[in-house]
Write a structure and sequence with these properties.
The complex is a heterodimer of chains A (202) and B (222).
Chain A lengths: L1 H13 L10 H6 L4 H30 L18 H23 L1 H7 L3 H4 L3 H12 L4 H29 L11 H15 L8
Helix pairs in contact in A: 1-8, 3-4, 3-7, 3-8, 4-5, 4-7, 7-8, 8-9
Chain B lengths: L4 H13 L1 H13 L10 H6 L4 H24 L9 H23 L1 H7 L10 H11 L4 H31 L1 E2 L2 E2 L3 H5 L11 H19 L6
Antiparallel strand pairs in B: 1-2
Classes of the chains: A mainly alpha (202), B mainly alpha (222).
Amino acid sequence: MIYYVNLLVKSIFIENILLVYFLGMCSFLGCSKRTDAALGMGAAVVFISTVCTPACWAVKHFFLKKGAMSWAGLPGLDLSFLIFITFIAVIAAVNQLTEMIVEKVSPPLYNKLGIFLPLIVVNCAILGAAFFMDQREYTLAESLVWGFGSGTGWALAIVALATIRKRLGYSNIPGSLRGGGIAMIITGLMALGFMCFSGISL
Amino acid sequence: MSVPAEQNTPVIKEILFGRANQKIFRDGLWDNNPITYQVMGICSALAVTTNVSTALVMSLGLIFVQGFSEAIISALRNHIPPRIRIIVQMAVVSTFVITLDLVLKAYFYPIWKQLTVFIGLIITNTLVVARLEGFAMHNPPWKSFLDGTGNAMGYGLALIVVSSLREILGSGTLLGFHVIPGSFYEQGYSNNGLMLLSPGAFFVLGLLIWGHRTIAKYVEGK
């Protein structure tokens, strides 16, 4: 049990998917102008990442890995070169399903999150989390924890940046540094802050 | 009746590399640079720039993927049902990314190892997606190819600037060769390790955006 708690802490703080691996930068910069939008996007990413990483694990484990197709009588088949295209298809499918289910079950939630869900297909934090899961050969439980943790880490970073950017509205920044430039430098400072977590030994 | 070859060539040249097409190409390279102006495709721009060689390979890979996928999507643009266009685009892009990944794995194994997941993440590079959606879906294949390669080269240019700065300041080398003279180190100069870590990447890119926008006189939100 303690192992999974460690993995969770590691994925949220020490190996924050945004500040250490730079994944999901585009929606991070695009959706951090308002705090409520950042919260919505963060929640959507946590949810999709938690669902998608184990889903990708299952697809890899039962279809793509070398020898995974032995249940179909094809023990020698190695489809691991198809990982890129299948993972993105799984993510797009899960996204579409979530959108449909949320729209049916809870229209108020859909009104809040609906506009963010299509954006998530091209958010590299989700695909990146799935690729790391594949590279580090996580088990099902580990990939569930990793998916949830990396999504949470991303949400934490975007909410923090949105709050800082709100305060920036009162400051006088040189014209050409406004927007992308200053956001990048603030993210650098945040990354510097998060580096103190790398001293934690788990 | 046949047109002599020497009269024919300028016409073809005009069609292929006319003023309008040059503009499309130049647009992505400088005026509308994907990294500093549109702020897109940042993930890989930060992750692969600890040294110049990985940045170079990444840029060449992106030129290949983006040029050809824009050309193909643009050739198919009248046959793609609008509701499923994103997934069709993704399928085309991932086909090229898989090709790239396998070629790099076979012939450039050490660099492929350093690039890790970032080759695969070209699929979700917003630059590729945005140009496919915004340009290739409305323009003929040759123009889209130029737009794709131009944008990818602009992206590569920014990557090479960032990676040169990071490599020189961070490890004192350029493409693996030592460029900071030994006498500097004797005087007490030392490499700035921060440049190799993630905060260094954010700072360098932030300053690069500032620099380019100052020269181009662009102010966001005006």
